Amino acid sequence: MSAHGPVLSLCDVLDLDQATSRDLAVRASGLTKRFGDRTVVDALELAIPRGSVCGFVGPNGAGKTTTIRMLLGLIQPSAGSGTVLGGDLGQPQSYLHKVGALIESPAFYHHLSGKNNLLALARLAHIDATTIPDVLDRVGLLQRADDLYRSYSLGMKQRLGIAAALLAAPELLILDEPTNGLDPAGIVEMRDLIRSLADEGITVFVSSHLLSEIEHICDRLIMISDGKTVFQGEVAKLRATRGDELILRPESESSLASLLTLVQRAGFAARVEEALLSPPTVVVEAGSDQAAPLNRLAMHADITLIHISERARSLEEAFFELTGTHSRDVETAHSLGSVT
């Protein structure tokens, strides 16, 4: 048990003793980065199976961007070892030709069309330009290929950035905050695009502060806090470890305290939850099989319940519990900001 909560070991996720570079797109052990006396990434463990969509989340300053920069050879690790697509982490030239990346906001020439921007990049990277129509089609920009970049919406600019990352037909795609600044429609488009790329066999490693989006697009998850791994595994497995909740609302708000005490004395973990636009409720850590017993318990105490519902605990709640942070430390789908 860690200070942040239960941590699934890597052995629970994947048998690393038997896994090989054929199984893993990224594998790292003890990955560490220090800047002077400050340790930003601290003995991080990574295991990303090929063909998966793996989310990478952590509170402000957790070390996500630093980790991505080490994987891309932009900065050198202070300690640790690993492989990316079978190539040694210490020799990025052995694997970078098989990696595509979108880091922060994509930079393009505003006075060029989307197609010509990609053509310029292809020539600089000595990539066959005949792939450009295909990648534009894959990201849904083929019909706007000849339009100037400056006329593109933010979502289209992000998709063009992914198109640029796909030019070299990568096996691994690393995306740092691909939905940053997008409106709800743009977020849905990006979600569908990422899933379609994974369906084609590309491994996608996506860093995001939109935890609700990670739930929708990723089948695996790596959570870090203070540069350390606090969870690594399937999103479904994380949900299973957290359990469900029952929402109880009494007829009278004056019964809240009595209901809470009653439920806690019965052996349940419970709390009062207050929301801005809805009446306060008692939230009980229990599944639907306890709804009827709790209703009877309240009835015998002369407390009338007017609402009982089951709620799966969200990824955000698990995140806050595991990392020991609060909602102000990481952005949700309702508030956009930068996270490092």
Let me know the average pLDDT. Answer: 85
How much beta, percentage-wise? 25-35%
CATH class of the largest domain: Alpha Beta
Residues in helix, %: 25-40%
Q: Radius of gyration, Cα only, in angstroms?
A: 23 Å
> SS-based structural class?
alpha/beta
- Could you say what the CATH topology of the largest domain is called? Rossmann fold
Please name the fourth-level CATH homologous superfamily of the largest domain.
P-loop containing nucleotide triphosphate hydrolases
Shape: elongated
CATH architecture of the largest domain: 3-Layer(aba) Sandwich
Strand order of the largest sheet: 6-7-8-3-9-10
Major beta sheet summary: 6 strands, mixed
List the total number of helices.
Answer: 11
The number of strands is 14
Count of spatially separate domains: 2
Which consecutive residue ranges, at least 5 long each, have pLDDT under 50?
1-17, 327-340
Element string (H = helix, E = strand): HEEEHEEEHHHEHEHEEHEHEEHEH
Q: How far is the N terminus from the C terminus?
A: 26 Å
